[in-house]
## 1
Amino acid sequence: MVHARTARRPARLRGVLAPVLTPFTRDLRPDVRRFVEHARWLLDSGAGLAIFGTNSEAASLTVDERIELTDALLAAGVPAARMIPGTGCCAIADTVRLSAHAVGAGAAGVLMLPPFYYKGVGDEGLFAYYSEVIERVADERLAMYLYHIPAMSGVSISMQLIERLLKRYPGVVAGAKDSSGDWDNTQRMIRGFASSGFDVFPASEMLLSRALPIGAAGCISATVNINPAAIHAVYAADAARREPLQAGIDAVRRIVQARPMIPAMKHVLARFGGHADWAVVRPPLEAFGADPGRELVQQLLDVGFGMPGLPAVPGAREAAAT
């Protein structure tokens, strides 16, 4: 393996990370100002930034839009070391361009979907894809996190593939987000590879209390977007204090995941922040209607949910409760 650039790799990013929601204007353009505001609030609440994940509507963003939004965060002083951008695309050249940009900016790593259009591909094809990306990026600073989400991608990342990639690219293949929804699979990843420096992030905060004691690195979870401080508190707590805190974040997660999660979380941000445009999603997703939105907010309020420190227009929190 040839590396054209040799610089020190950034420190590993552990803890709770949000696949940062992407705000849009009414004409469906990314709203840069609100994107930066949201990222800062997440950081201030203890979360890291997995920008351009599934819940970021990354599949509905162009490569240029992702780069422009990343640059906007950097220009606003958001530290690259707190970011793991999603860079996986079907086209190798797009993945390389996004990954090289992230590495050059000093990001802590990149979260890489497998190529997801062709189904039924085997480990040999996936190894060739990841290998080609690593060789073309050609930078010792690259820290690649595999994104295992077979329900959406239709492509499975096997234990055998992880083992082979770790053997061929030690240090470069840094970890995985396991969105399989299968606790047994998550356990196998952690128990099989964490001791070799492979950081595993479950995709739901509901697994934190089970995953942390066996070596998980934290979680990369959709609902960190709306409940970051409470989820970070579970990650940071000692074992004796973790159980009651876990119950609180589980209650919020159950309410939100019972709905289409991206429109649901955007509706919550619109209500609690007082910015109606937060509810905008790019087609083919559909925004929440008024009645289901009221029910969602009321259920959250009933379990004591709040969004401390969220930038909001005057009266927004009071309005959310009506």
## 2
Amino acid sequence: NKTKMRNAAAPNVIHAMDANHLRAVILGCLMSNPQIKSLSLIHDSFGAVPSDLPALFHIVRSTFVEQYEDYNLFESLRTQVGWYLDNKKALNKLEAPERGDLDLQEVVNSDYCFL
């Protein structure tokens, strides 16, 4: 069903990216702050005991920046689509939009990470 497939594509990509960020946060806690023993996780929401929140605050934001600073979703999709195209010239028609000027480093100091 092409319609269902089209409608599911964007949410599935976002869920996969959120899951990757969640994995990075857990690994960040284990590697940089092993005293964080208890996390409460729901999709892209993170919680911990109050004494661990300052460290978690930093880990969530720094891993978010690491994940997206050099990542371009459109270029990634273009590359992946190219793997399956018989006519590689058609790939030239799939141009990724230009990157904006958002400074992701600002996320590290933001009160609210998910804008």
## 3
Amino acid sequence: MQVIKVKRGADEAPESSVQNRPPIVVIGGGIAGQAVCEAVRELDPSVGLRMIGAEPRLPFDRVGLSTLLAEDAAAESLQLRPSEWYADRDIETTIGVMVERIDTDEHVCHLDNGDSVAYSQLVIATGSDPLMPPLPGIELAGVHPFRGPEDCEALRIAADAVVSANGSGRPAVVIGGGLLGLEAARGIAARGCPVKVVHLVDRLMERQLDDRAAELLLNEIEGMGIEVMLQRATTKIVGEGTARALEFDDGEQLECAFVCVSIGIKAQADLARASGIECERAVVVDDLMQTSAPDVFSVGECAQHRGVVYGIVAPIYEQAKVAARAILKADGAAYEGSVPSAKLKVMGVDLVAIGSLEGERSAVSEHASEGVYRRIVISEDR
């Protein structure tokens, strides 16, 4: 556990004590927790504010994980703000500690180290966990998610071991041909390790791309030396102690050196659910990001707004600003949802998808020789 506390003069008392009320507490030390702290401080530079994060580091840029995987960079290189940033803004930060339970009646958080923290307003920003399918063999050594710096370190070690062995004939295999799966594959390949992508659907990034765009992307990915296997349903990971092959629904097996699973995320709503806060797929919030519990808000990948859970970064900042205004009783527009967007962070591929894939009609501009494809979707004259 690390606690970053603000140093004050002997004649200064913490702001929350001056106001005779507990601080605003943010649970979650990720991008969402960071965004809430920044939004609160923009509106009020002195209100008591505390962030509690379960990860053993200050908030970092999870979007940059593919770079961390491809290069021998330290996890600290992804840190969003230096330690001094929090002290300069009177934000008390506790990391490496998990909130086990929220007493919404008493306005108290109970931590796994035995401490209790009172709050005036609470923001749940616990983010998400990697979705690991219930496959036989998923628990074997050599099967890695792609979600945090520790995962990147494990994948780097595994990839470098394959390279050092001068090619054992078994490649790395990435399960998942979505955004993160392709970024993981490119990061592994960048280390000189052979890699194959196994995807359930008939095209890559099917949620964001039409058939033609996916075809062009496939050509680019395979041009990097990454083999892609589409319409393959993995039913088992085979191995004795360590993963050695994938088995598909037709009985075929694909030998592998190790496996990276990147098929999506699931909202981390266990804390809210155990504390009696309404949850469905995630923590249910209204247009002010307020949960079913008084003075409790939720932001980011753990929040469900109008039935939608956003697994991308842009909505986090929009939600954080709304929640901060609601917490501080400031004027401002309510949250009405966000336009989905995705950007593939693979060197040599410029791919951006914004909005809905389907519409009443569309217009396409393509320059095949240059590998350029643009499509605009029109629906209800928008």
## 4
Amino acid sequence: QWQHRISSFCVRNIDTGQIREHPQADLLFCAEDLWGDERFWGARFKPGWNPDLVFTHNYICHMLCVSRWALDHTQRPTTEVAAAQDYDLTLKVSEIARDICYVPRCLYHWRVHSGSIAINHDSKPYALEAGRRAIQAHFSRLSIAVNVVAGSMPLSYKVNYLSPPSSVAVIIPSLKHNEELVSCLERVSSLSGELCHEIIVISAQDEENPPEALFALATKDARIRLLSVKEPKPDKAMLANKAAHEARSEALVFLDPSCVPVDASWLDELVGPLARGEVGCVGPLVLAADGLVAAHGLLCQPDGGMVPVEIGRPPEQPGYMTMLAHCRDVVAVPSCCQAFLRSRFLESGGYRGEFGVLMGAELCLRVAAYLKSLVVSEPYGKVQLQSEFLVSETFAAANQRMLLLAAYPGIVQGDPYLDPHLRQGGGHFELRDAARDTLAL
């Protein structure tokens, strides 16, 4: 009787308005929560359609709605993906979908029990392999060479890209020569492998008389070039753009001297997603000087500001919906470390100095709006701030926020990757104060 009662309202309040407003939607999904012990718990307010997060685990899950048109244009799941048929179908439909919609309401209540995979991840061990095969097949259909392996969390995955950009230039723009710059260059030189063909340090200082420590590093590592810009009032945007034109590599990584890479995998992990044509910019997980998270991407605010995501958390924690442990698409990544294909960066027009500390965020918004590209925050190629300061976007002045808002007025509606039930003003995924009164439970 209890099971019958639960199943009778497992799905309710279906919002057909979304279908009417988006008649070409071929894939729809909604928020969900869990039911167990005679109560509701564990609501999942999702970030909307987020391809890079989909590649890490099937967060779409319930309730999945697919159009007849999409079903007629996709192959049915095979026994190879048994126990992950919905995952396989989601990936297949995403490849051809004319529109994908997220309904930010809890229209599905997921009943859990001791044998449910929702709380007992070992109840279906074969599901992990089935999901891995579904993701691997997705990339095979797109002719992208990857190796999908188990992720750090239960029933999750990590995509290793096997055909990253052939060469990378690490560009370090600096307004002055100091100890931070020397330390940054030392770490980049020692932790960047064969993929790194160039390390360009560009500054407003006299290149003919660099500090002895910089000169010594440049002498030891043939990849290092010391450049300067002799302008009355140079800024970091000007320095970065000039270095991008000087570089000869396929990909560019802009690294602020306030940051240092954490380990030798940083560059491979950072540029890997650029193997997909739909990715325009990639940023790493940024750690603070104390080892806690400084940013896993940025949330845009209705006033034009940018807030670091999951700031202050230990990096080993999975975070909300385990997003801290996984790659995800975001509206912007901090300017202290950003990776682009050189051709896409030059096509975009590069950084614009008038946006100040928001110049990196503005470029991310421009890449997404005009190049129709994704911005990815990945947690594996970490960089760490050398000082106790936060990422620079935190200190955006009012005029910089207003300038960004004027250029991208859609910001006033809030972050497109944030469910409206969650707080717009915080870097953590927390319920809005009035959310409990508006939930459709």
